[in-house]
């Protein structure tokens, strides 16, 4: 069938020059056995999209990005059993369902997560989309490529969205929101009355703030260079905010917490704040690292900051199980305990370049494209 998608053709030279995507007609395959065709209603713009646009993550070109899609199922493959035409769904992380980690009920750590997310093709090497003139087009980004009016995705990617929830608001649960909130809920699991420092005030970091509030953390610290995001962090429940990203930030946090910071969470791309996050911890503290980055990114830790029972754990997609992790956040949102609407700004699909510019500049925390 034919659809309209945002096509990315060139690399971004620097953050001061934004990419220009163009809308074009594409052709989609029929769904394979375990695939689903979703009419995309909305899709978020995420940090991982940024990394592809920046050239930090490789891709074939031209390609279609987008991995925080939400919409309504229009067709299903012959072996799809958990969903039906007309279901309202959000599209999350892909997994194979067959490797040892998937069989351990740890789909975020699927052994094929790399090729499924960044291979820009199906695992069998075929492509779900092509340009309307028949030319090759790289899709299957996170097995969805949802910067499009329609997307082919895997049944295992999908989570049902209740009729009582705004479907267009749920797409970011597919990646950034679940990544931040899930890191707190599923991996760090802070106790009531504990302290946590969150490095990065984007959508992932602010989702972590909301989760820390739900977990009843007594001290919630947010570090970010953007004053507006720090103000929003305070409104969402942060007890303290710091604008500095320099080395002195760890000393400030240690002074504030009397060297007893229980948890820290790095939500910056490339893990650039991990050293400060580790240095901020008290004895037996735990640091989580969720920010993605180029395979060439690295950081250094002082030996003393790895002693005294401190732990550093890498967290993919917030951990947890699909769809449990997403359903938990949706339930909290319905209860008014997870005000996701405070993070977002909607853009019509034809304004995708404006949305990307505002996302890169930090003007908007979480842009969401509305396809209709």
From TrEMBL:
<keyword id="KW-0479">Metal-binding</keyword>
<dbReference type="GO" id="GO:0008270">
    <property type="term" value="F:zinc ion binding"/>
</dbReference>
<dbReference type="Pfam" id="PF08240">
    <property type="entry name" value="ADH_N"/>
</dbReference>
<dbReference type="InterPro" id="IPR036291">
    <property type="entry name" value="NAD(P)-bd_dom_sf"/>
</dbReference>
<comment type="similarity">
    <text>Belongs to the zinc-containing alcohol dehydrogenase family.</text>
</comment>
<feature type="domain" description="Enoyl reductase (ER)">
    <location>
        <begin position="16"/>
        <end position="366"/>
    </location>
</feature>
<dbReference type="InterPro" id="IPR013154">
    <property type="entry name" value="ADH-like_N"/>
</dbReference>
<dbReference type="InterPro" id="IPR020843">
    <property type="entry name" value="ER"/>
</dbReference>
<dbReference type="Pfam" id="PF00107">
    <property type="entry name" value="ADH_zinc_N"/>
</dbReference>
<protein>
    <recommendedName>
        <fullName>Enoyl reductase (ER) domain-containing protein</fullName>
    </recommendedName>
</protein>
<dbReference type="InterPro" id="IPR011032">
    <property type="entry name" value="GroES-like_sf"/>
</dbReference>
<dbReference type="InterPro" id="IPR013149">
    <property type="entry name" value="ADH-like_C"/>
</dbReference>
<dbReference type="InterPro" id="IPR002328">
    <property type="entry name" value="ADH_Zn_CS"/>
</dbReference>
<keyword id="KW-0862">Zinc</keyword>
<dbReference type="GO" id="GO:0016616">
    <property type="term" value="F:oxidoreductase activity, acting on the CH-OH group of donors, NAD or NADP as acceptor"/>
</dbReference>
<keyword id="KW-0560">Oxidoreductase</keyword>
